[in-house]
Fold:
Amino acid sequence: MTKPLVVITGASSGIGEATARTLSAQGHPLLLLARRIDRLTALGLPNTMCRQVDVTDGPAFTAAIEEAEVQYGPVDCLVNNAGVMLLGLAHEQDPAEWKTMFDVNVMGLLNGIHAVLAKMKARQGGTVINISSIAGRKTFPNHAAYCGTKFAVHAITENIREEVADDNVRFITIAPGAVETELLSHTTSDDIKAGYEEWKDGMGGVIAPQDIANAISYAYQQPQHLCIREIVLAATRQQP
Structure:
């Protein structure tokens, strides 16, 4: 392959799908991971391996990466995009939803990092791009546990960036505002979903997954000696 391997989690829709299409068009071989394998294969991208993997399953995550590396060479970039957003008030929300978010948004991200980082350090190169949120920088109503997971993503990314800077490995945080994806559909409260949709309409619409994919591509395509540590982007009319 003329370009190195990129791994994208949560690639079956939204930001992950847009990023897969963008980086594939740039000539990168891909390993796409998601629970909905049919959505991955339907993308029909060249030089792409699709695997049904739950990111909370560390051994399965690592096995898929090792399989892809046999075919396409070492992972040069991991895009940790898989995530869930389950909104609710702290005194009402089912704690099982909190656990789901921390398992996917935090442990899933750490599983991916663990699967690629030692080899990147040994090669003295590589990039990990973690998809966080503006909710990793400030709080929002009904977002307590979700914000907790995204504050964790910000902290983990910056902490490891400092640890591996001397190894020439880049860690990058992408923090979108509201994006038109399936993320809101995970929330079980109809009232909260309706309020969120009203908020989106009030700003004249939100940004598209392709906007985030463009930011990911921009950060990744910089020369290895340049690390864009964080990109925060949202609709111009989004105030918080």
